[in-house]
Structure formats: C-alpha cells, structure tokens
Amino acid sequence: MFRLPSLRAVISLAVVATPLAAGDLPVPEENPVLVVSGAITNTNVGGTASFDYEMLEAMDTVTFTTKTIWTDGEQTFTGVQLSDLMALVGAEGEDIKATAINDYAVNIPRADWVDGGPIVAFLNHGEKMPVRNKGPLWIVYPFDQKPEYQTEQIYSRAIWQLDRIIVLD
C-alpha cells in the first residue's frame, strides 16, 4: 500500500535540503543548542539568533580530520564554518565572545573568521558530541593544516561545550 509522507516529513526534508541563507533564519523547533547575540542584524528569537541541531545541520557544513591536544589520535569533525555562521547572523563586530556551558569564555577575533578556518563542530566521527565528550558544540580549528593554528593562543580559542556567542562592537 502506498502512503503519502506526513507534512512534517516533507517540511523536514525541505529544511535539510535547503541550506540556510542570510535573511532566512527560521525559529528553532527544538531547544536551542547555540544562541548568538550582540552586534548582529539577522535574528529570530527576541533579538538573538538561536539555533537548534536541525538548523545547524541544514547549513553548508565542512568536515576535516585533525589531531587535538585534548584527544587521542586523529578526530574527524563536522560543523559549520565560523565565518559562515557569522555571515548568516550579520555579525558587525570585530570580535566574538564564545562562552561554554560552564561559563568559560574566550574572545575570537574577526581575523579568525575565514574560509578554511575554525568550525562550530556538532559531530565528531559522525556522531553528536555529548556534554561529557566536549559537546554539544566545539569550536575546532584545522590544527594540522596550518602551523599558525598550533599555538597556545589558538588552542585557547578552541572552546568546547559552546552554547553562547556574543558579537562584540
């Protein structure tokens, strides 16, 4: 017997198949995993840009393999380029303050928001990262690709358990 897909299934497929673009920021359907605020022009919830997993997964993603100083062996991360995320929210500042669930915070300058630079990773080895394993989100640089990414300053910017970003004026 042939069954038509439910409307929710069709909408879900449309969301996954259509990458998010600037000016097109839907309201998250699930609990947000990331809230971006501050000097941004594209918002969706009370002056912030809030993202659930499905919204991040709907964006163009990048996957790379790198070693980190916190894990054993090579790790394969998938996520959204920080530069793409900042473009999507219309970031107007020169720095961001990235904050973790435990309130650890670090500033990341605009100079780091480049193609081929850090990503906001939501998968490690193809799996969502639980909080106990540095999830749900981790700003990861492709450490093995550039020697300038192998410094204490850059390592300090690789914040895990990320849940908030404030774009600073």
TrEMBL record:
This is Oxidoreductase. The lineage of its organism: Bacteria, Pseudomonadati, Pseudomonadota, Alphaproteobacteria, Rhodobacterales. Keywords: Signal. It comes from Salipiger mangrovisoli. InterPro entries: OxRdtase_Mopterin-bd_sf. Residues 1-22 form the signal peptide.
